[in-house]
Amino acid sequence: MRAEVTRLAIEARGLVKSFGGRRAVDGIDIAVPEGAIYGVLGPNGAGKTTTLRMLLGIIDPDEGHRTLLGEAQPLRAAPRVGYLPEERGLYPSMPCQEAIAFMGALRGLPLKEGRRRATTLLGEAGLGEWAGKPIRSLSKGMAQTVQLLGTIVHQPRLIVLDEPFSGLDALNQGRLEGLIRAQAEGGATVLFSTHVIAHAERLCERIAIIAGGRVRFEGSVADARGRLRPQVRLGTRSEDGPWRAALPADAHREGGLWLFELPETGIEPLLHALIEGHAGIETLAIERPGLHDAFVAIAGQAAADTMREDEEVRP
Amino acid sequence: MTGRMDSLRAAMVIARRDYVASVWSRTFLFFLIGPLLPLLAGGLFGAVGANVDKETGPPTIAVILPADEANGLVRARVLIAERLGEGALPQLRLVKPAGEGEVQARALLADNVRRSSAVLSGTLEKPVLTGPRGVLRDLRGEVGLLLDRTRSLSLARLFPDGDAAAAFEEPVTLTERPVDAAAGSDARARSLVARIGQVVLMFLTLLLTGMMLSNMVEEKSNKVIEVLTAAVPVDGIFFGKLVAMLGLSLTGIAVWGGAAALALIAFAGPAVIPPPAVGWPIYLALGLIYFAATYLLIGAVFLGIGAQANSVREVQTMSMPLTMAQLGLVAFASAAVNDPDGPLALAAAILPWSSPYAMLARAAGQPTLWPHLLAILWQAAWVALTIRLTARWFRVSVLKSGPPSLFARLFRRRRSAPISG
C-alpha cells in the first residue's frame, strides 16, 4: 500500500500581521496543494491582500512562517511565481508588448523571448493590434488583460491573483475563468482572492474563507457545502393538521412555504407523515446549499452582507 | 547565490527600463539643457568666492630684482595706480634674491602658502617674467607698463633734461619664461579647478536625485511598485533605480563633456585651464568615480526619504532640507580646497557624504594617489550600507514590513494601514 503524498505549493502556519496596533491578519494557516485552483474568500478588510502579500514575501509577517514552492524566503521563488496585484500597476507610456516582456524579465525570462511570447499572448487575447501601442491608450479592461498576460508570460508554476475579476465585464470575467482553468490544466497552481463567491464556486477545488483576519474554513468547496444540511421547501394545501407534528423543530414559514433542514432520517418518513395526515403536498423541493449559504454559516451573516455590498460597489 | 544573481539580474532589468524610459522622454532634453543654468550659477558662486577668498584674490607678482630696482618698480606702481586705480595692476611682493633666479622663481610659484601668480626676476634691463602660460598672457601688458614707467623714472633722475632722457629711452624687452603648470605651480588655477569640480558634482547630483524622486513617486502612484516588490527585493529595486540614473547621468556627462571639450578647443585652446595636480586623465577618472559615489550616497538617501512621499508636492517639501544639507556638505568640503591636509579637510574626507567633494578638491591640488584608493573603498562601503538601510526603511515605513527602526519607534507617526483586503 502506497501513501499518497500531496506536495504543497504554499504552506503557511500562524501568520500574524498588525498595522498601527490593529491586527489585520491574526494567525492564518493555509495549505495550497500543487496544481490546485485555490480561492481565498472574504469581504473587504478581511485580510486577504495582506495574507497574499505575506505569502509572496512582499511584506514579512510579525509572527508565523510560510514556504512558497519549497522556499522559506518567498522572493527566492519569484522566477517561478506570477502575481497580479489588486491595484493594477503598469507604466502608462510603455507599449503593451514591452510591458508584458518587462514583467517576464523581472522574473527571469529573457526580454527577446518575452517579446515573442507577448506577441502570441496578445494575439490569443484579441489584442494583437495593440502590441505596439502604449498602455495609456487601452481601456481599463484591456490594460488589466495586458497585466494578466504579463503575470503568466514566464509560465510560472504558481499564479497568485488578487481580486482578478474586479473591474472586468461579464465577457472578460468568462475569459479570465477560462484562462485560469487553462493554466491549472497546464500544471500551474492558481491561488486567487475574491469577494465574488460565484467565481470561487465555479473554479475552485479548495477554498479558504477569511473574516476578521482569521481563516474560518479551509477545505474543499464540497466540504464547505457539506457543513450545511440540504434545505427543504414544502408547500401544502392544508394549513394545519396532525401532519404538522411531523415537521422538524426548525421549520418556519416564509412566502407561503415551509422551510427547514432535511432531517437526519431523510425525506421518506416525513413524506409518509404528510401523505397520511392529508397535508395536500403542492411543492416539495430539496435544495443543496450553495457556497454562499456555506459562507454565511461559516463567516456569519455580517461578513456575507459586507461581501454583497463589496460586490455591488465593485462589480 | 542563485537568489542573489536573480536579484541582481532583476535589478538590471529595472535599471534598463528606467534608463530607456528616461532617455526617450522629453524631460531628458531639459536634463541636458538644465546644467547650463547651474553652471552659470556656479560661475557666479566662483566669482563671489574669488572676492572673499584672499588666496584666490588679485594676481600677485613676486619681484626678485635688485633692491633699488625693486623699489623703483613699487614707486612706478604707486604712480600708475593713482591714475588707473588700484585694481588695474597686480600686487607686488618684494623677495630678496637668493641663488639662481629661475630656481628661486619656481620655488616661489610652488609655494602654496604665499601664493604667487608669476615671478619677475632678472634686472630692469633684462627682465624675466616666469609663470604659467595663461598668467603670462594676462599679465604681460601690466608688467610691461610697470617696467617702462620704472625705467622712465630712473632715467629722469639721471637726466633731468627731459629730451636727453627721451633719447636714451628704449622699449623694455620682457622675456617670458612659461612653466609647466602640471609641475604643481599654479595653485590659484588649481583651486579654481577644485571649486568648479565641486560645484559641477553638486548640481549634477541635485538634478539626478530630483529626477529619480519624481520617477519613484510616479511608480507609487501607478502601483507599479507592487509588481516590482513582488519580484525583486527592495534593495534590488533601489539599486536598479540608482544604476539607471547613474547611466543617465553618464550619458549627460558624455554629451556635456564632449560639448565643453569642443568649445574649449574652438574658442580658448587646450592650454587655457592648467592641469590639476594628478593630471587630467586621472582627475577626470577620479571625477567620474567621485561623481558616482556622491550620487549613489546622496541618491540612496533621497530615494529612501522620497519613497515616503505620495505626490510631487511632498517630494518637493522633503527635498528642500536635503538640498540645503547638500549645500552644507559642499561648503564643508570646500575646506579641502584651501587646506587639503587640515583637520576640516580630513573630517570632510571621512564623512561619507562630503568625502567625494573633499577628495575631488584634493585631486586638484595634491598629486598623491593612495588617499584616493582609500577614499573610494570607504565610499563604496557606505554606498552599500546606505542602500541597505534606506531599503529597510522603505520596507518598514511604506510596506509596513519588518521591525520598526529605533528612529521610527521614537518618532512614530500613526498612519492608516496601506493594505486592505
UniProtKB/TrEMBL annotation, chain A:
InterPro entries for the chain: AAA+_ATPase, ABC_transporter-like_ATP-bd, P-loop_NTPase
SUPFAM superfamilies, per database record: P-loop containing nucleoside triphosphate hydrolases (SSF52540)
Keyword set, alphabetical order: ATP-binding, Nucleotide-binding, Transport
GO molecular function: ATP binding; ATP hydrolysis activity
Domain (ABC transporter): residue spans on this chain: 10-237
Pfam families: ABC_tran
Family: Belongs to the ABC transporter superfamily.
PANTHER family: ABC TRANSPORTER RELATED (PTHR43335:SF11), ABC TRANSPORTER, ATP-BINDING PROTEIN (PTHR43335)
Identification of the protein by name: ABC-2 type transport system ATP-binding protein
Source organism per UniProt: Sphingomonas jatrophae
From TrEMBL, chain B:
Domain ABC-2 type transporter transmembrane, chain residue ranges per copy: 199-389
Residue stretches spanning the membrane: 192-213, 242-268, 280-305, 369-391
Subcellular location field: Membrane
An MF annotation (GO) of this entry: ABC-type transporter activity
Keyword entries, A-Z: Membrane, Transmembrane, Transmembrane helix
Membrane topology: Multi-pass membrane protein
GO-annotated cellular components: membrane
Protein name (record): ABC-2 type transport system permease protein
Native species: Sphingomonas jatrophae
Lineage, opening ranks: Bacteria, Pseudomonadati, Pseudomonadota, Alphaproteobacteria, Sphingomonadales
